[in-house]
Amino acid sequence: MKTFTVGDFKAHFSEILDQVREGEEIAIAFGRKREIVAYLVPRASFTRAKRKLGILAGKAHAEFTEGFEMTEEEFLGL
Q1: CATH class belonging to 1-45
Q2: 0.70 surpassed by pTM
Q3: Which of 2, 7, 48, 71 is the most buried (most CB within 10 A)?
């Protein structure tokens, strides 16, 4: 994995994107300590974890009584 500072990244943006397209992973470093703040990875290698639906099922309960009314401002939290 190659590491570029923010300045180098800005100066060579197009070339770095070409490298990412070719499969290279790039780290972007910032500051005097060159702390890594971001990674650029090819789209093909990027995956998101699928979210499981219903993980709170049975753990909460909501009940609305008859005549329950709420103004639009209350609904929006204004």
Answers
A1: alpha beta
A2: no
A3: 2
